[in-house]
Amino acid sequence: MKDCYVSRTGRAAALIARCDPVVYEDGRYAQALEPAQLQAYEQDGFLILQGVFDEAEIGALRAEATALEHDPAVREGEEVIREPGSTALRSIFRVHELGERLADLPRDPRLLDVARQILGSEVYIHQSRINMKPALDGKEFYWHSDFETWHVEDGMPAMRALSCSVLLTDNTPFNGPLMLIPGSHRQFVACVGETPEDNYRTSLRRQEVGVPDPVSLRLLAEQGGLRSVTAPAGSVVFFDCNTLHGSGGNLSPWPRSNVFMVYNSVDNRLVAPFHGMAPRPEHIAARRDPAALAPLAVAA
Questions:
Q1: How confident is the model at residue 300, as a pLDDT?
Q2: CA dihedral of residues 276, 281, 287, 291 (deg, nearest 10)
Q3: Is 123 exposed, middle or buried (0-12, 13-18, 19+ CB in 10 A)?
Q4: Hey, which end of the chain has fewer CB within 10 Å, N or C?
Q5: How far apart are the first and last CA of the chain?
Q6: Taking a C-beta distance cutoff of 8 angstroms, is the pair 298, 199 a contact?
Q7: Distance between CA atoms of 230 and 201, rounded to whole angstroms?
């Protein structure tokens, strides 16, 4: 398989034009977004939808997320990532298999049909997690493209995946909201350096390998600007797997938490990781022939 997106091979940093579509099958595979919304996603690499979930729905999801956060068995499991230099929880992975309401969330047609429409196929969950930012000291996530990591470390062949973030709490200017660079999804940033063995053990706490160089980052930011996702709980953000994003720390006295689900096309299943690395664990990158998601039945 020819690798269009060579990264971390000891060469200098580079910008590589995207080889893959952003919206597949011209957005005709499923019907969820309006043409203007689909066009905005294709142009910017993300879409923010407010009011997708009502207060009761978000309250139930937030309660289950909080229960997982305080479950002793979960806290000691391999799915938990802690904040750098702290015992506070940063992320819980594989939440679509740990919770009950969280198990149904990826199959909700309000989310699933958007993923199917954009990716032009049936989809499965490549990865799910809750990202938490504790009040006052929740740490930042540095700028990165998810695809760069999923391609190099997981063996995701093409840019045919997207992230769906469901906001469990209000995301404000003060609690470390998601930041995105519009238009950055059209350029792959080939990163410098090489990948240490078992890099995920440290990178999920603080990523230092597979991050864009300052020159490329500044260029893309100057071209596209920056967008901070400040939106109320119940909102949903869809963003392309190659859109550069990050977030600052939470210095507010209120915690922030969002559920992330990564939809991948069934036609883009993982192969062996590029450059000969061992695969990351299943709870981080699903590769055991995951089944396509069936939508939840909608009440009449």
A1: 47
A2: -170
A3: buried
A4: C
A5: 47
A6: no
A7: 30
Tens-digit pLDDT profile for residues 1-60: 678 898 888 778 899 999 999 999 999 999 999 999 999 999 999 999 999 999 999 999
Give the span between the Cα atoms of 267 and 121, in whole angstroms. 8
> Closest Cα to residue 266, out of 119, 153, 155, 154?
119
Hey, is 288 helix, strand or coil?
A: coil
Burial class of residue 105, CB neighbours in 10 A (0-12, 13-18, 19+): buried
Q: Tell me, what amino acid is at 196?
A: P
Regarding pTM above 0.70, the answer is: yes
CB atoms under 10 Å from CB of 292, counted, come to 11
Res 236: pLDDT: 98
Q: Is the dihedral of CA 189, 38, 32, 22 positive or negative?
A: negative
| Whether 284 contacts 149, CB under 8 Å | no
Query: Can you tell me the distance from the alpha carbon of 29 to that of 160, in angstroms, rounded to the nearest whole number?
Result: 14
